[in-house]
Amino acid sequence: MKTYSYVGKKLEQLCSSRFFRFIWFHLRGNKFSLKLIYFLFISSLGFSILRSLDGKSSTFTPGNLDLFFTSVSAAAVTCMSTVEMEVFSNTQLVLLTILMLVGGEVFTSWLSLKLRTLFFKVSHKDDDTVNLSLSNHHENPSNNNSILELESSISESIDHMEVLKYKSLNFLGLVVLFYLLFVHVLGLVSVFIYINTISSARNILKQKGLHAVTFSFFTIVSSFSNCGFIPTNENMLIFRKNSGLLLIIAPQILLGNTLYPPVLRSIIWVVGKITKKEESRYLLRNSKVLGYHHLLSYKHSFLLLITVSVFLMVQYILFSSMEWTSGSLGDLNVYQKLVGILFQVVNTRHTGESVVDLSTISGAVLVLFIFMMYLPPYTSFLPVGEETCEQGSKRNSKVIENLTFSQLTYLVIFIIIVCITERKKMVNDPLNFNVLNIVVEVISAYGNVGLSTGYNCDRRLKPNGICENKWYGFSGKFSDEGKVVIIIVMIFGRLKKFSINGGKAWKLM
Fold it and tell me: Are 459 and 487 contacting, i.e. CB atoms less than 8 angstroms apart?
């Protein structure tokens, strides 16, 4: 609570400036612009600081575009990489951890709640709407009594609801912050204990020159925010036999994304039962009115839980049946395979941590993974039949909505652009630069997942020059123009919820 109070005071001091209040009051109705400015700001700031810090290696320094790509990838929690992770120093890894933390969906939603409560309080103090609307009636003395009684009744009713709404938002902010801190601390301690207990995991960090605390903090923040960065070149592939570590990280991934709404609603319900707070009942009964995207109704939360379970089961069955005896899992025993497959299918929705080489798995599994990466986090396969506040408010912007394309259309456009920028490599190196690999890369960037087929020098049909296999994504072999396109796709994907209803004006006959 002390942390919440401290951060709240700092935010209140920042928001008290006239410039900030001017920006907020003119852009608060345009959430897309606010989010876009926020992510561009933290990405640019992260890039500036990342460039000023010394890397781990004195022989190799990433270029400015690669550093900016990494900064955007961390802030947009995407995990796309154009350089190996072990080139970054401990200080740079801490910076990337902070970028992933402040770019994560749970943190940004808490920040939005805190700003709403701050400006709710300001507007409530300055709002004399009732008095202004009724002040003209006071000119007639005969109506004074009735008008005063009406004004008093309306004011009391509005004040009570406004105060309750403000308290509920503030209470929700406390719950979200507690959830954020508790899950992170629990995960950090669990990973740190595991690393210091299991010699195989500890030896890997020693060989890599990584600090146990840095690795634990980086991994937990990355997993919970659904970024997927791991401070090793091989991602989680090098820990594929450490089943205990995989079982610690997998719940973090689910709690930070697809299962966040059901768990949040459960926490509010439990707190309400224990404390008997009116705010808890208000939150559970008025989830749509509050406009908090992650606080879903009971029905939607329940269906979401079923959906996540079914998707995991389908992926698990297909992956097991196609890859159980393949080379991707060949060196694992039965228990390690069961845990490894579970960890892999948990990551396909939005995180991107991997214990297998994606380029070696079967086509059927890869196509299923592409489909899973495309789906939004709160996809429900059963009709909910509810309308959110955001959907209701968009009725007044039909012109803009009709001009927007569907998300699938945008993806096709981005894939075509990448195929154009990489057309020479597609001719000279068709086994690596094929359309399927490009589709995986673009959809992975759009879904903020980070899974990649990578690049293999052994597949080149025309070996020319020195080629060394590197542990970074396929994007690392793109041209500068192609990397810029992927940067745009990552930011677009981070803001995809604002275009989720696009394309409805287009009718296929």
Answer: no
pLDDT in tens, 92-131: 999 999 999 999 999 999 998 888 887 765 444 444 444 4
Give the pLDDT confidence of 32-90 residue by residue, as tens digits: 888 889 999 999 999 999 999 988 877 778 899 999 999 999 999 988 899 999 999 99
Averaged pLDDT for residues 205-221: 95
Please list, in sequence order, all residues whose beta carbon lies within 8 angstroms of the beta carbon of residue 14, skipping any fewer than 6 positions away: 20
CA neighbor of 437 nearest in space, from 447, 451, 427 = 451
How big is the chain, counted in residues? Answer: 509
Number of Cβ atoms within 10 Å of the Cβ of 318: 17
Looking at residue 184, its amino acid is H
Taking the alpha carbons of 172, 174, 177, 182 in that order, is the dihedral positive or negative?
Answer: negative
Count of CB atoms situated within 10 Å of the CB of 384: 16
- Rounded to whole angstroms, the Cα distance separating 154 from 151 reads 5
* Dihedral (CA of 220, 224, 229, 233) sign: positive
List CB contacts of 426: < 8 A, sequence separation 6 or more.
Answer: 419, 433, 434, 435
Task: Tell me the C-alpha to C-alpha distance, in Å, between residue 455 and each of 50, 82, 234, 446, 469.
Answer: 26, 11, 13, 20, 7
Number of neighbouring beta carbons within 10 Å of residue 255? 20
- CA 216 distance to own-chain centroid: 19
Identify which of 204, 326, 190 has the alpha carbon closest to the alpha carbon of residue 251. 190
pTM, to two decimals: 0.83
Alpha helices by DSSP H, 53-104: 64-75, 90-103
Question: CB–CB of 44/414 below 8 Å?
Answer: no
Distance (Å) of CA 432 to CA 225, 237, 453, 460: 30, 21, 9, 7
| Contact between 47 and 68 (Cβ < 8 Å) | yes
d(CA 504, CA 507): 7
CB 351 within 8 A of CB 226: yes
Dihedral sign for Cα atoms in the order 102, 106, 109, 110: negative
Is residue 422 within 8 Å of residue 433, measured between CB atoms?
yes
Q: Percentage of the chain surpassing pLDDT 90?
A: 50
- Token pair belonging to 153: 């009744």
Residue 320 contacts residue 190 (beta carbons within 8 Å) = no
Q: Which of 112, 106, 94, 100 is nearest to 11 (CA)?
A: 112
